[in-house]
Amino acid sequence: MKKTIFITLLFISPFTFSQKINKIINAKEVERIEKVLSADDMKGRAIFTPGIDKAADFISSEFKNAGLKTFNNADVFRQSFIMLKPKRQSVSATADGQVIDEKNIIIVTTKKDLSINDASGFEKASIKSGDNFFNMVFGFISAGKNYVVTVDTAFAKSFPRLQYFTKQVNPSETSVIFILAATAPTTFKIEAGHSFDTLKLANVVGMLPGKSKKDEFVIFSGHYDHLGVGKVVNGDSIYNGANDDAAGTTAVIMLAKYFAKLHNNERTIIFAAFTGEESGGYGSKYFSEQLAPSQVMAMFNIEMIGTDSKWGNNSAYITGYEKTDMGKILQQNLTGSAFTFYPDPYTEQNLFYRSDNATLARLGVPAHTISTSKMDSEPNYHKVSDEMGTLDMNNMAEIIKAIAISSASIVAGKDTPSRVDTSELK
C-alpha cells in the first residue's frame, strides 16, 4: 500500500506543480508588467530622468505586492547611491621625458587634484596587441587598485572609446590611467585637475529570507534602465527598451511573485533591478559591493529574453557556460521538459563580462546571464523599434518558468554551482 501511495504522489506532484506555476507565471501577467515598463510614458527609462524614477516606483510596488522584504532591513526597496560626474579642468603628462598628447591619455579618477609619478606606488600594467582590449579595461577599472596602463598603439582606433568610463565614476573607485604608447614608459609624471557633479541613482532590491540557509544568497537580476529619448527615427524618438531590458526586469518580478508564493526557499533569494547598465554597469557594481562574494551561491542575470533564440522557442543561452557547472545543473533540473539551455554562441563578443553579472563573476561567483538575443542579428537592439509589439509573451513566460524550475535545487540548497576560476583575469 505504501509503495502504491508513493508512486501515485510522484505521478500527481508534477501536474500540481505545473498548475501552480502556470497560475503565477503566464503570458497575460508577463504582458501586464512588460506593458507598463516599456510604455511611452516611461520615456525610455534613461538614468537621471523622471521616467526611470517612475519605473522604480512601479517595480517597488510589485515587490511589495509580492510580499518581499527590503534588502538589509532598509526602509524602502530603492537602493540609493551616488555617482560622480567628472569634468577635466587640466592635464599635463610626460613619459620618459617626452610630453604625452592629451588625446593619448585617459584618466578615470575621483581625485580633484591628481599628481603622480613612477615612484607613487601605482601598479604598472599593459594591454598588448592581440589582448582582449575591453575585457582587460573592465578588469583594471573594477580591480580596486591604482593603475597606470600602457595601451598598445594597435588599439589606437578603440582608445578614444575609453572616454565612456569617464562620464560617471563611483566615489569609491581608485584611479586608473590609460596611456596610448608603443612601449611602456620607464619614468612618467602625470598631473590632472577635475571638478565633480554629484548624481543620484537607485537600484530596486527585495528579498525572501531563507529558512535554513539564510546566509547563503541566490540572486535573480535584470536592469531596468535604457537609453531614454534620442534622435527621431520614422517619427519616433523614444527608445522603449522593451526587450533591453524591460523583459529581464519583468522576469525578475515574475520570479519574485513565484518564489514568494512557494515560500519554501532554504537559501535567501535576492531580487534586483539594476540601474545604469547602459552607462557602465554602475548599479550592479554598487549592489555587488554590499555583499560578501563567498555568500553568493549563484546569480541569474536575465537580459533580453523577449525574442526567440537562434534555436527557436523553448530555448535560451547562458553566458560563460563553460566557466562553472551551473548550466549543467539547470539543464538537469529540466530533464523531461521541452526547454534547453545552450552555451553562449556569441563568445567572440565576450558577453560574460559585459552585463550585470560581471562584477560578481570576476570575484569567483557563479554569476551568469541568461538571454535569447541573437547578438549577430537582433533587429531592434538599441533602436526605437524595441517595443512591446516585437516580443513573444508566450515564449517569455516559458523562459521564465524554465528559470524558476531549473533553479529550484539551487534555491533549495541541494545544489551549489562551482566557482569561476578567476586566475585568467590576473
UniProtKB/TrEMBL annotation:
Keywords attached to this entry: Hydrolase
Residues making up the signal peptide according to the UniProt record: none
TM spans (from-to): none
Originating species: Panacibacter ginsenosidivorans
Protein name as catalogued: M20/M25/M40 family metallo-hydrolase
Stored Pfam families: Peptidase_M28
SUPFAM superfamilies in the cross-refs: Zn-dependent exopeptidases (SSF53187)
InterPro entries, A to Z: M28_fam (IPR045175), Peptidase_M28 (IPR007484)
PANTHER family for this protein: METALLOPEPTIDASE M28 FAMILY MEMBER (PTHR12147), PEPTIDASE M28 DOMAIN-CONTAINING PROTEIN (PTHR12147:SF26)
Single GO MF annotation: metalloexopeptidase activity
One BP annotation, GO: proteolysis
Chain ranges of the Peptidase M28 domain: 203-403
